[in-house]
Amino acid sequence: MKYLYATVLVLTLSACSNPDKATAIPVYPAQQLTANSWVIHGPKEPPNPKNQGFMNNPGIVLTSAGVVIVDPGASVQTGEMVLRVLKSITAQPVVGVFNTHIHGDHWLGNQAIVEAYPDVRIYAHPNMIAEAKDGEAESWVKLMDRLTEGATRGTHAVIANTAIDNGDSIRIGDADFRIYHVNPAHTKSDIIIEVVQEKLVFLGDNVTFERIPRMSDGTFKGNLAAIDMALATDANTWVPGHGPSGDKTLVLAYRNYLDGVYQAARQAFENNSDSSAVKAIAEETTANFVHWQGYEDELGRHGVQAYMEIEAAEF
Ligand SMILES: [Zn+2]
To answer: pLDDT tens digits, residue range 214-244?
Structure first.
């Protein structure tokens, strides 16, 4: 009885230690993609109160040394959900985390992993570590809180502790993680991760599926180059930053979108039209994508951005 009382007291104290922490996220299903990899596919909608900010694709890879997680999500609540899902797959500890880029919907879940496994290594590109320390981390915590109306509260930024770059190969247990980086691609800080033995690639937001992401931190030309680098691997399972995983056709689909916008911008530039003309041309070159989440909001912006990129390259 004494023991029970002590337990209840500890639980009560720990619940009170962070009274502002928002409620937990319900468990989402994990899909097994290869012998040793799973992905929890997040909702397609942008961060909002209903999805509690969860909208990315956290990945789980089992190695002989323990578990590796890719992009544990937008908040401490998402990271905790990933750990609950993980418990239904294995009792092994988490030994490594990869963060694919600076956008906070992918990595603010680091906090939950570090709280459970304080010695975990968190890998990211040095540009991401620098940008996060330079204020991006704070602004992403605030943005998520605002977009979800407080559903990520209790989240603070835990920034990666290990820098990795293009050409690196990290061996964790019996698994090799090869890193690809183009600057700038979707952002200045993307890493694409090839899990060699699984013939699987985590693309980050260099590729999304059924959802058009923001491109304001990247370039069309660089993003296309990053995709081509990934396509040169012999992978046959592909995990986009958002949307369902699958075979190479999803990579080619998103490449077609970027290329459609880029070609429309080139055509407008060569016709001596201004950047506002790109959208109408791009509506034809990207007509297959009209049902993708975010298309209506982003196409006009993407057209102007691609035009400015082409213009800048000419002068
Ligand atoms: Zn992103």
So the answer is: 999 999 999 999 999 999 999 999 999 999 9
Contact present, 192 and 226 (Cβ < 8 Å): yes
Q: Looking at residue 36, which CATH number applies to its domain?
A: 3.60.15.10
DSSP 8-state secondary structure symbol assigned to residue 135: I
Cα of 214 from ligand 1 centre, angstroms: 7
Output the CA 12–ligand 1 centroid distance in Å. 38
**Under a CB-based contact definition with an 8 Å cutoff, are residues 257 and 122 in contact?**
no
One-letter amino acid at 266 equals R
Q: How far apart are CA 238 and CA 263, in angstroms?
A: 25
Position 283, amino acid? E
What separation in Å is there between the alpha carbon of 5 and the centre of ligand 1?
Answer: 47
Residue 54: domain span:
23-205
* Residue 198 belongs to some domain of the structure: yes
> Which of 161, 150, 147, 151 has its CA nearest to residue 117?
161
CA 241 to ligand 1 center in whole angstroms: 7
- Strand blocks (E) in the chain: 31-34, 37-39, 59-63, 66-70, 94-98, 121-124, 162-163, 169-172, 175-180, 192-195, 200-202, 237-239
CA distance 196 to 242: 22
The answer to whether position 161 is within a domain reads yes
Distance, CA of 238 to CA of 163 (rounded, Å): 24
Residue with tokens 């090799």: 176
CA of 103 to the centre of ligand 1 (A): 5
Dist. CA 272 → ligand 1 center (Å): 32
Number of domains in the chain: 1
The pLDDT tens digits for 277-308 are 999 999 999 999 999 999 999 999 999 999 99
Whole-number Å distance, alpha carbon 217 to ligand 1 midpoint, is 9
Type and span of the H or E element at 115: helix 110-116
Q: For 104-137, write each residue's pLDDT tens digit.
A: 999 999 999 999 999 999 999 999 999 999 999 9
> Do the domain assignments include residue 78?
yes
Examine residue 96 and state whether it is found in any structural domain, yes or no.
yes
